[in-house]
Specification:
2 domains, Nucleotidyltransferase, domain 5, 39% helix, alpha/beta, five-stranded mixed beta sheet, 21% strand
Length: 327
Amino acid sequence: MADPDRLLLGIDIGGTKAVVALARATGEILAESRLDDWSSGSWERDIEKLEAHARVLLRGVGVDPAELYALGLSAPGPLNPVTGTIMEAPNLPGWKDVPLVERFFAAFGVQALLENDANAAALAEWRYGAGQGTRNMVYLTMSTGVGAGLILDGRLYRGARFEAGEVGHMPIVRGGRACACGLYGCLEAYTGGNALAEHIREDARAGAAKAILALADGDIAKITTKHWVEAIRAGDAYACLLRDEFLDVLAQALAILILGLNPESIVLGTIIQANPDLFLDMLRERVSERIWPSLRDVRIDPSELGERLPAYAALSVASLEPTDFGS
């Protein structure tokens, strides 16, 4: 059993923000800090900034880096968690072939581990959030894009090429909308934040989505999914019709995951986590219609960690052992 007094440092690296957190192995967060608009276009400068910020946080609570047990890094992929390298991060300009683990090990002198951000979020919800007590769980996020983390038989599942969980690119609608990945009919093309916003903008240009356009002050370019949610709350017919499509496509994807993986729990982040009253019951009903009665005990719940998810995601990576990464 891990020593509960072990100190873990977690760094969650995102395209627009980064979060640094210090915690005990129990999950008790001792300090946390956030950087906004931090990336520079140079991975070398960006890493130096992250290192410096982490040192400031540690000094602020009187912790020497030598006291750390491990450092966890949560970052967007594609990446290789075994070599500790980010191969290319589209939302981080200049981040290609980045030896992230090597750099942080050299800087802090402690075990450093790297994990894909969706996988790290799944670990966080499994350890500290809505997935606690399960052995088979799917975490699904629908923010800019759509991704998943899979906990199968009590372990994080990464797949043969570390690309398991790319459920956003499951083909759900035959001959459907174009997806940013180059395929058609992907789940992400119907439920991803960027794709949804662009679809609404197209409809607004054609004269539809008038209530949403008004919420964006008449500027089509400013339309976001937040305006869509506002319009649903106001009972706008167009917004509610789009919600029906969103839920039908998402329910189809969840039914496939349930039938294929038989999880105990599906945990949903971002838009559904923030607005469960608008989406959750309707989604559960649609999923139930698409699966066998024997599988209807699967829990479909919103994420519990909310704004603390990035910190817990990186700290969950720090809680892993090198043996969890294979070789």
